[in-house]
Amino acid sequence: MKASSSTNSPTASPAASKAPARTWNDVAPDKKKSVPEGLWLRCPGCAAMLYKENLAANLQVCPECQHHFRVGGTMRVNQIADTGTFQEMFADLESTDRLGFKDLKAYPDRVKAEQIKSGVADAIRAGQCFIKGRDAMLCVLDLDFMMGSMGSVVGETITRSIEHATKHDLPLIIVSGSGGARMQESGLSLMQMAKTSAALARFDDAGGLFVSVLTDPTTGGVTASFAMLGDIIIAEPNALIGFAGPRVIQQTIRQELPEGFQRSEFLKKAGFVDRVVPRGQLRNELARLIDYAGK
Question: How confident is the model over 193-213, as a mean pLDDT?
Answer without folding.
Answer: 98
